[in-house]
Amino acid sequence: MRTRTPVVIAGLLATALAAQGCTGGGGTPNGGGGDGTPRKGGTVQVLQNADFSYLDPARGFDGGVNAFYRLVYRTLITKAPANAADPNAMVPDLAESLGQVSEDGLTWTYKLKAGVRFDTGAPITSKDVKFGISRGWDPEIGIGAPYLKQFLAAPEGYQGPYRSGDLSTIRTPDDRTIVFTLKAPFPEFDAVLSMPSAVPFPVGTGGGSAFINDIVASGPYDLATFTPGSTIELKRNPNWDAATDTVRTALPDAWKFTIGVEGATIDERLIAGQGADINAIAGTVQTATIARLQDPRYQERVIKAPSTCTTYMSLNTTKGPLGDVRVRQAINYAVDKSSVLNATGGTQFATVATTIIPTSVAGHADHDRYPSPDHTGDVAEAQRLLTEAGQGNGFTLTLDVRSNPVAQRQAEAIQQALQRVKIDVKLNVIDVSTYYETIGTPSQQHDAAITGWCPDWSSSASTFLPPLFDGRVVTEKGNQNLAQINDAAVNAEIDRIRALTDLAAANAAWGELDKKIMELAPIVPLNVENRIFLPGENVAGIVAPQGDIDYAILGLEDPSRG
Fold it and tell me: What residue range is the signal peptide (predicted)?
């Protein structure tokens, strides 16, 4: 942000964001005192506490790794670059155009661009796209983005190419044409093909654990070295052709991800800005750092991005007392969201959530089914419901939580709030790198979990409610419906809304469904967290319109530095 006015950071950020749309300054990329233009060359350093979930895009499905995937992989369709007029728009990537849909909405046809290749130099063909997508049906490998499995009309019992062979509902009439058959019309299918589970791979590759420590790149960068839990280094992919890619500028010569650095240490390094750290980026700063960023020396580097993600506590409806809707409603009343907000870092970092769909996602409708003064909780109403449900003397609940300071503080706030209604909360702390896989495995999941959900595209709520509450998509691994709720009326309404071709009408319906789901209380919405970044002074081109940095378009202002 290009202001040196020594005002408090809240005012600075609010004003700058309103005027600049979350870019580094005046709509131009962030820079370190020069002209703010990212240039070709140099190495971008990425500092992070936890390892990526998986390099294999059929397995990985979280915000951090999705940003990484954008550097090394391509899909038929992808989200527009973050500096586009509409960063939520879907644009062709490997495909020549958006999909051509049949009159009945069941068939979508795409044609590959000429000249697209893997890092091996081999052409990317329609058969490779089909093969990469079909890997998502493998019960061990396909634990990532679920949408293709939900919408494509795969044969009953199909388990991917390694176990079941060819997927007949994807046709490849020639090497550049691919045709998909859907179960039912879904007007947003272009967006489905932007998911990491749609990455192409050479036919026959990637079985078992082959892609755990290696990749086959289709994007501008390839894996140079990978030491799990320590470092990932990327080099240029010489077989990526910029002429075929309108999304990625790929300005840096290389990327280095340093893993396992404590959050506080990352902040100190970025503030100090010494050596290669002037070329470094990281995730959101720690809560304890925010006051220091009021210093005018740092304000021009600060970027605050409003998130599209809801942080919530899931309530496992298959576990004991939580099977009773009155108990789940009581917990919604009992949680002190104000205390959770303070544990998150206060109003600088988050706002209290009362809905599932956040305000930044189309389909949001304002409502608060479980109100209380200042969001501190309604203990009396919670106790009344528990008594009615025969749980007036309380019970014990095990809460899964990530092993990071903010998540543990949030869990402790919930623990203290529920003590007021005699619910004894035991904390089960799980390593960050394995957390989502663990809670996404029902056999390992406990009574509740603190987690979050971000839409995979923000132009509708179609990727917010269905993954979390459709009872037909509960799986043994990679499960997103942590509440394991399976309500026939909710399922039917999901189907009805998905088929609507009028996006405005669909979004209004998603907002109404949000209200109905909260009556069932399968989760406790907690807050919507903002992201506050402090990039190194030589990093330029940072744009984060929905809380995530688009790696594909950033670079270094002076590649010779650091």
Answer: 1-21
Considering the domain architecture, whether residues 192 and 233 belong to the same structural domain is answered as no
> Are 274 and 361 contained in the same domain?
no
* Cα 452–Cα 458–Cα 463 angle in degrees, nearest 5: 60
- Overall average pLDDT of the 355-369 stretch: 93
For residue 117, what pLDDT is reported? Answer: 98
Instruction: With a cut of 70, say whether residue 322 has pLDDT above it.
Output: yes
Cα–Cα distance measured from residue 208 to residue 206, given in angstroms and rounded to the nearest whole number: 7
Residues 276 and 378 in one domain: no
Mean pLDDT, to the nearest integer, of 17-45?
A: 58
Identify the residue with better confidence: 477 or 137.
137
Are residues 182 and 327 part of one domain?
A: no
| Structural domain harbouring 521 | 310-529
Pair of tokens at residue 76:
């038929």
pLDDT at residue number 349: 84
Q: 123 pairs with which residues across the strands?
A: 117
Q: At which residue do the structure tokens 């176990």 appear? A: 163
CA atoms within 13 A on the CB side of 292: 13
Q: Look at residues 253, 272, 234, 301 and name the one whose alpha carbon lies nearest to residue 539.
A: 301
Burial profile 386-421: b = 16 or more Cβ within 10 angstroms, e = fewer:
beebebeeeeebbbbbbebebbbbbbbbbbebbeeb
Q: Over pLDDT 90: what percentage of the chain?
A: 77
Model-level pTM?
0.77
Q: How far apart are CA 346 and CA 287, in angstroms?
A: 8
* DSSP-assigned beta bridge partners for residue 181: 107
> Which class for 492: exposed (0-12), middle (13-18), buried (19 or more C-beta within 10 A)?
exposed
190 and 251 inside one domain: no
3-state per-residue secondary structure call for 451-466: EEECCCCCCCCCCCHH
Beta strands 448-453 and 523-529 are unpaired
Predicted confidence band at 546 (pLDDT cuts at 50, 70, 90)? Answer: low
Task: Give a yes or no: residue 63 inside a domain.
Answer: no
The pLDDT of residue 32: 40
Q: Is 384 left (phi over 0), alpha (psi -120 to 50) or beta?
A: alpha
Task: Say what the pLDDT of residue 422 is.
Answer: 98
**Neighbour tally for 132: CB within 10 Å:** 27
Q: Which amino acid is at 551?
A: Y
Q: Is there a domain that residue 247 lies in?
A: yes
State residue 13's pLDDT score. Answer: 32
d(CA 396, CA 327): 12
